Each structure stands twice: as structure tokens, then as C-alpha cells.
Amino acid sequence: MTRFLPLFFLMAAQYASGQADTSGPDFKFSVDVNLVVLHATVRDRKGRFVSGLRKDDFQIFENGVPQAIREFQHEDVPVAVGLVVDNSGSMSRKRRDVTAAALAFARSSNPNDQMFVVNFNERVCFGLRGAELFSASTAELEHALNGVPANGRTALYDAIEVGLAHLNKASLEKKVLIVISDGGDNASHHALDQVLEIAGRSDAIIYTIGLFDEDDKDRNPGVLKKLARVTGGEVYLPSETGRVVQVCQAIAADIRNQYTFSYFPSNQKLDGTFRGIRVTATAPHGGRLLVRTRDGYIASPQRKVRPNDSRGGP
């Protein structure tokens, strides 16, 4: 199923609420307030990334109506990345593999990426030392990943909320959260519905990696699937913990091979309705390709600058 990640500029809401400064001589009110930006992964029928496509190879439909693509890009851009790592007691035996996987992702990333670590058991904390918000240093990230002992209960939902909020501090526009957990939660203040709504209204793509023991009573792959789906990301459920390194390398490749589009919707009303989005891509030889991203957004006037929406919920 095709899904898309939209982002919004919302000058109209500031103008209508009186928050915009209209007194200066340089003030300009733009009617182009609903720029939708989409990040999408394109693969062929064999699951391989497809590169070299042109703007004319894509079609975007909003509620079934064709949209004119305004901007088109396919290049490796720096990304803000949060590594959200489960350090509850059930993850203790997987700790070494998880650290190796996260570092493999860091080594596969753009050197200009902004990265941080959120460690959690029943408590949530940032891994980087001092007041440092982001880092591209593998040594610093390794220290951050090993800063909390693996024990206690699991506050997965709280950790995701903290990670999404921290991504808002990044200067880079493209944002990603990678969650490594068994999907269980028994200590959060937030409920799953709340976190899915927050995730759907964020501008982040969430990739989830489920690591389970056969006797793990807290395992919940369904939660990990929902978090990935609502943000246009992908869930990975490796059969062996040792494969998590390859999974993180695959996520890094997925991020690096995405196409980015933007368009001004033909329906410019900010009326709070859900707008379904479908994108098709055609290969030069005429074959149909597979596109993955979010499936829509909510055209709401009650928004911050450049957030995005999608239907959430379990």
C-alpha cells in the first residue's frame, strides 16, 4: 500500500491568529500555504531500490485528483536520527548486538547527519554526555548506547514521545527515529493511542526493529508495525538477534535512496479533513514500481510550522 510523508508550511494559521508580524515593510503574505513535501522509497518487484527516475515518471493523487509536482529531488541529504533503545531487563542478553547494530547504522550514514540516543527502561534518558544535543561521532554514540544498565520495566511509549520531541530541535528537515525493542510496554505514562497520534503529526519517519525471545511474554510486534505504518517507515522482525546489524545497514540504505517531492494541493482549504494520497511510479521500460510512504494527511489549520499529519490509531 502506498503511503506518504507530508510536511506543511502554515503561514495562514499565524496570519489568521494575529501571530504573524504584518507591520514591517518586508512582510509578504503568501497564498501558497499548503506545500506538501513527500519522502518515498521506490523498489522494483524484486525488492531492489530504483534510481534514475525522473519527475515525469511519477504521478501524485490527492483524494483521487492528480497533483502537479512542483519540486523533485533524489539525492543523499543529511538526516536527523534518533536511536531509541530498549534497556529493560528483557533486552539484557541482546545488548551487545543492539550496540553493534546501532554503530553499524552510524557508520553507514551521511557524515553530516545529526544523531542522538534515547535509552529507556522504566525511565527515559538521553545518552549523549553533557549538553550535547546531537553527534556524528561513533565513539560518542557508543558511549551513549552503553550508558544505562539493562534492567527494570519498559516505558516504550514515553521514550518514543521524548525522541520525537527531541527531533524538533534538529536543524535538518528530514527526520528519522529508529526504535529497537520487543514492543512491550508496562511503565509508560503515555498510552499507545497518544503516541500514535503524536507520531502521525510529527515530521519523522519511524523504523522499528523487533527483537524477541521465545519466552518473552511482553513481546508485541503489532505495536512496532503500527508505529512504522503511521509514519511511512518500515518494521523489521529478524529471526535472530545477530541479524540486527544487517537490518540497521538496510535502514541506512533505505533512507539514502528515497525520492523527495513537493506539491501545492489543488484543494487549499484547511478544513480538518483527511486527504488521502496515492503515488504511482513507472519504470522507463514501462513496468510498475512499488512506492512506500504515508497514505495521507489532515488539512488542519491548528498546526505548527512544517509539521505533517497522517491518520493514526491502532
| Overall number of strands | 14
Please, how many helices?
A: 7
Class by SSE composition: alpha/beta
Uncertain parts: 1-33, 302-314
Q: Approximately how much beta-strand content do the residues carry?
A: 15-25%
Q: Helix and strand string, N-terminal first?
A: HEEEEEHEEHHEHEHEHEEEE
Largest pleated sheet:
6 strands, mixed
Can you tell me the overall shape? globular
Number of domains: 2
State the end-to-end CA separation: 17 Å
Instruction: Report the helical percentage.
Output: 10-25%
CATH class of the largest domain: Alpha Beta
> What's the architecture of the largest domain in CATH terms?
3-Layer(aba) Sandwich
Strand order of the largest sheet: 7-6-5-8-9-10
Radius of gyration: 20 Å
> Could you please say which CATH topology of the largest domain applies here?
Rossmann fold
**Overall pLDDT score:** 82
Question: What does this 3D model show about the protein?
Answer:
This protein has helices at 11-17, 95-107, 138-145, 156-167, 192-200, 221-231, 244-256, and strands spanning 36-43, 58-62, 65-67, 71-73, 80-86, 114-120, 124-126, 175-181, 204-210, 235-236, 259-263, 274-281, 290-292, 296-298. By secondary structure, it is an alpha/beta fold. The protein folds into 2 domains: 11-74 and 260-298, no CATH class; 80-256, Rossmann fold (3-Layer(aba) Sandwich), CATH 3.40.50. It has a 6-stranded mixed β-sheet, sandwiched between helices. Strands 4-11-1-13 form a 4-stranded antiparallel β-sheet, with no helix packed on it. Helix 2 (95-107) runs parallel beside helix 7 and helix 4 runs parallel beside helix 5.
